[in-house]
Specification:
The chain is of the alpha+beta class. The chain has helices at about 80-95, 160-195, 200-235; strands at about 5-10, 15-20, 30-35, 35-45, 50, 60-65, 65-70, 100-105, 120-125, 130, 145-150, 250-255. Keywords: Plasmid.
Length: about 260
């Protein structure tokens, strides 16, 4: 995703890039592409000013429209890292002695009423509970009474801590995107109300604001999901070697041996 509405100016030897009718959205590590030259961005100071990592080494440029910002920095990759680490943690659980076919919120269990006998659903309520299909009539009565999974709070693993940290970064990225979108929307409204001569600029600003708002909403949704998974997967650290399949009707106990 890139943002390129408005005019940009920069002076040789200066790290400051100024914009006119712009709505800069950038983070550390992103790239400014201007007249075929590329510079690494340190941060967006405001919607009309960017600070480069190094002073601009190209010629002085004033009021040009052929520019772009490539959002390639690590700031925008936090949700990718979060999902990878959470998937690794979930894979560890799935490799343990407890097996399930599907997992989700307690209310989501009904989606699997049509599954065959022996299907196992892990309800991620409080506490986590395993349910098994003991018959196949397609109703709620098909499920077993449920076996709770108990756990004792322990020191979080490095992976769990990293997952939670990445979830927070993802939420921060979503918040930053949402803030930029709100700023752009406000500027668009201001331009629209200034004069008819600014109608074209206001239209561009409003379009950009809508794009940024959509990106912010997607990032926020991903961050919320990542945060929830990080909490569920990273909240407890279990010694999987001490687990065994319990007798029917008893409870799984993760706490023994910790």
């Amino acid at each position: 995703m890139a943002t390129s509405a408005g005019l940009v100016s920069v002076t040789t030897g200066s790290p400051v890039v100024s914009g006119t009718l712009t709505s800069f959205m950038a983070a550390e590590g992103d790239q400014l592409v201007l007249r075929g030259l590329t510079a690494v961005i340190d941060r967006a100071v405001s919607s009309s000013q960017i600070l480069l990592k190094q002073p601009w080494s190209g010629p002085s440029i004033s009021g040009v429209a052929d520019w772009d910002i490539s959002l390639t920095g690590p700031y925008w990759q936090s949700t990718v890292v979060t999902n990878k680490r959470l998937n690794d943690l979930i894979a560890r659980f799935e490799a343990g002695p407890i097996k399930w076919d599907a997992a989700g919120a307690p209310a989501d269990r009904a989606q699997y009423n049509d599954q065959g006998v022996g299907f196992v659903y892990l309800s991620l309520g409080d506490p986590w509970t395993l349910y098994t299909k003991i018959k196949n009539t397609g109703g709620e009565s098909d499920w077993s009474a449920g076996q709770e999974i108990r756990g004792s709070p322990a020191e979080s693993t490095v992976e769990a801590q990293a997952a939670r940290d990445d979830a927070r970064l993802a939420a921060g990225a979503a918040g930053g995107s949402a803030g930029a979108a709100q700023t752009a929307a406000s500027q668009a409204a201001g331009h629209a109300g200034t004069a008819l001569s600014g109608a074209s600029t206001a239209t561009n600003q409003a379009t950009l604001a809508a794009q940024q708002a959509a990106a912010a909403a997607a990032a926020a949704a991903a961050a919320a999901e990542a945060a929830q998974l990080a909490r569920l997967v990273g909240a407890l650290s279990y010694d999987m070697g001490n687990l065994s399949q319990p007798a029917t009707g008893s409870a799984f106990d993760f706490g023994s041996g910790l």
